[in-house]
Amino acid sequence: MKCIPDKKNALLFLCMIAGHFLFAQLDKQATRETKALYRNLKLISKKHILFGHQHALEYGHGWSDEADRSDVKSVTGSHPAVVGIDFSGFSGHSKEEIEKTAALLKKNVIATYERGGITTVSWHFRNPVSNEGFYWKDSSSVAAMALIKPGGSHHEEYKTILKTIADFAHSVKGKDGILAPMIFRPFHEFDGDWFWWGKKYTSREDFMAVWQFTVAYLRDTLKVHNFIYAFSPDTRFNSETEYLERYPGDDFVDMFGLDDYGDFGRDGKYNVEAGLQRLTIISDVAIRKNKLAAFTETGLESIPDANWWTETLLKTLKSKKLQLAYVLVWRNDTTSPTHFYAPFPGQASVPDFINFYNDPFTLFEKDLIDVYDNKFIIK
Keyword Secreted, does the record have it (predicted)? Predict the structure, then answer.
């Protein structure tokens, strides 16, 4: 579906009606641009899918911090439509380090917004109780979710961390003075046991309490109105009931996500039918609840299958009339010769990725105009 800026165009009218009356975004005070992005993502998902890449602008294969560069752009001529950043540096570091991180991310978020691209935010949250990293360590980690929830021993500290996130959200203004919308995806892969907020270390009740407090505090107390909130477990579910087991409720989630590497070739193992079934579950839930769905993380490390983009990923995304707003692959490390998930010039999958890029179903940044407006164009 293409919405075009013509007041006499019936399709535009229908798009605007759909945006105002059908899509259930949780923040009724969201900025105009955030509401428009939410509506447009829903409309895009009916006929297309956006391509995303984590840390695409911050660094890539053999480079870092170069203006207007991404490995995806080097291959296709366009940045990815969705650019991933991370709030991992917003706690557990010195004030100076946090400010430096915030300045770099602010520059990239604003640049993406001004080009017409979209930012999504993951949060590899350092354990605020044991003052360690985000991975669980049996020898020293602390089950912190019960301690940062309301009434917990570290709740005030958690509120301070959320204030840092809110300050950043309030700072990302373009040259037009408008705040850049962002898709915020906290506590991802919570059904696994590798992060300290994982299911093994957190009761269902505590997880939901922290999630609900996080959204309500950012939205209602700290007045962050440029976030779209995404809920994204890993693959430890085979039914809608299992997927929603820790769902905090319709008032606290805008987007249903899935992080799935295991079904799409990790360690040479493929179970694409299982992956498709999981994607179908999140797509169906989003359609029924009038919310968004997205393939929030996936990819094949080192991309050893030269035709993975069209033969595995694209075929899956086109199956069963899925309605997914975007698919995001993980990062390209600066120094590692093997840790990359998007192609760069000379990488073996480049020809197939060009076919993926040229397919009318996939959209990159250059394909979008006015994605933050009630009227938008897909070139």
Answer: yes
Q: What is the C-alpha separation between 92 and 349, in angstroms, rounded?
A: 38
Query: Catalytic site residue 189?
Result: yes
| Annotated active-site residue in 189, 242, 273, 365 | 189
Chain center to CA of 184: 7
Q: Report d(CA 82, CA 80) in Å as an integer.
A: 5
Q: Which residue has the tokens 């915030």?
A: 102
> How far is 41 from 297, CA to CA, in rounded Å?
17
pLDDT classification of 25: cutoffs 50, 70, 90: confident
CB of 303 within 8 A of CB of 341? yes
What's phi and psi for 195, nearest 5 deg?
-105, 155
Residue 308 has pLDDT above 80, yes or no: yes
- Tell me the binding residues: 124, 194, 261
Domain-wise residue ranges, the chain:
10-378
pLDDT in tens, 69-107: 999 999 999 999 999 999 999 999 999 999 999 999 999
Instruction: Indicate yes or no: pTM above 0.70.
Output: yes
Catalytic member of 297, 301, 311, 365: 297
Assess whether 297 carries a catalytic annotation.
Answer: yes
Task: Specify binding-site residues for substrate.
Answer: 124, 194, 261
CB atoms within 10 A of CB 6: 11
- β-strand 59-60 against 292-298: which pairing, if any? unpaired
